[in-house]
Amino acid sequence: MDLQSVQDLKGVLRSDFYHGYATAAAQIEGAWNKDGKGISIWDTFGHTPGKVSDGSTADDAVRSYEFYREDVALMKTYGVNAYRFSIAWSRIIPLGGCDDPVNEQGIQYYSSLIDELIRNGITPFATLFHWDIPQALEDRYGGMLNQNAYTPDFVRYARVCFERFGDRVKHWITYNEPGVYTLAGYAAGVHAPARSSFRERNAEGDSSTEPFIVAHTELVSHGYVSRMYREEFQPHQKGSIGITLHGNWSEPWDEEDPLDQAAAERAREFEISWFADPVYKTGDYPASMRAQLGDRLPRFTAEESKLVLGSSEFYGMNSYTTFFVKHKTTPPDINDHKGNVEIHDENRHGIPRGEESDTPWLRAAPEGFRKLLNWIYKRYQMPIYVTENGTTAKGEVAPTPDVLDDQFRIKFFEGYVGSALARAVKEDGVDIRSYFAWTFTDNWEWAAGYSDRFGCTFIDFESEEKKRYPKQSAYYLDKLFTHLIREA
Ligand code: GBH
Predict the structure, then answer these.
(1) Which of 194, 241, 281, 326 counts the highest number of beta carbons within 10 A?
(2) Any idea which residues carry the catalytic annotation?
(3) Which of 83, 217, 103 is nearest to 157 (CA)?
């Protein structure tokens, strides 16, 4: 666990750099129907047989709803100065709608969590939406498929959060990975609300249209919430507001082939610029998407475009891995949302995209992360807040000394933070202001259930109290950031 490879990087990160862990309410809280909480689409999903690979639900998850004080104390021993959590909409407004009642017990929970963080010198970053829309809104009008009905409900929910927490929360994120929400939920149909064109999997849905409609709703409603915050709250609360986008690095399969280079750029645009161009660059979708999707891609009205462009005060970035991308010679499938490309694990020379984790899509590829930081910074010219990055590791099944000494994860962080991120700042001049590791503890990894362990803390899910066991990577990150961050 030495810092050999980063010796030359002492103090390269700004003295006010934020580092800590990111989590999501539905993955950690448990208490799914306690203290007045309404059910979310993820409660429904977890309770539907056959949806989650290990058959589990998030009913208890890691019980952070009860153990948040102990968790903050543990986090403090990990040396963090910030924590990114999400608020469960259905705890705040159980039925979700703009005329539905507020649940004071839900408010109380987040208020106590925020106080506990601040008492411990940990800066709260709050995400309003990390995929858990109240089920009642899905039932009432189809959730985000209905932009006009949905938008006032999301705006009112955000208003309640700003009113009740904004005196203490100064970093707001409207949406976590709007692209993953829509693609996994409405294109692949493997996440809630489980809609797609594929009838063997989902009873309803249309993968060729719905993902683009839902994405449009997310962008426009984000725009309204951001405007409200900046007009009504920011002048006295003095916080900032933005959105967090997902994105992996797309590397050409054959780096010499202009068609593969173009395919990789197109893949980045479909994955990232779909959201980032409207918000940071043009107020519209990328031309490559319009060319392939035509009228299936919604159009921004002039008013929407103006609202969305400039609506995020920083670039919230989640990234995990790299893929090789090869051009196709056949026309795009109606359900394609990746830019009509082939995705590969190896490039033309047979070089793999990275070392395998315990999660099929995720391979350790720090160099791709550095390239992506550069690509985003160059295209969008915004300060970057890395809001998620992390990994699973093979063989983490019990809290044995070997497993807790998680060298694979340590090596992952050494590469992604110690090499890629710190060098992107020092040598490439990228403006990076935070790093949140995914994640604090093992948790409920959505449709993968409890099998994919992303935590820097091992959880014994069999035990009643979901016992926590620190992994060495948590202490490594502490040492690493102490070294990298400039002293004030
Ligand atoms: C993030 O999504 C989420 O914000 C977080 O909640 C989650 O726990 C974390 O990452 C780890 O997964 O199975 O081949 O169809 C990351 C983006 C998008 C990655 C969906 C996995 C499914 C690929 N994820 N993707 S596949």
Answers:
(1) 241
(2) 177, 388
(3) 103
